[in-house]
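seq as requested:
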Amino acid sequence: MNAWARFEPLLWLLFMAGGIAAALLLPSASFVFGIASPAGWLGDAAQSYQRLRALLGGSGVQVFVAALQSLIFWHAAHQVRRVLRSFWVENEPLVCGVCYGLAALASAVSFAVWCRI
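struct tokens:
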């Protein structure tokens, strides 16, 4: 048995853990830094928001970040749907509708907020 075969399960575990972490943590960070902070929902974060706005002031950068956030939300919706399916949650059409509907809503809000900046 070669070294790759012995470590392959561990490497796959790390790969999957990283994907799940990205799917579950990046949407919340994107929401805080990409939607809530620019919208002014965080209160005292306005000073740090001004620095962030100066950095991300270009319209091309804003559209790129909004598109990237949208992809993150869709990735998260797919991962959450897969996790719910692994827990044998019934009513697959409802789960799909809720997961992907929330991804669509979050994407629309993201584009609206980034285009308003």
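The helical segments are 3-39, 46-55, 59-86, 92-116.
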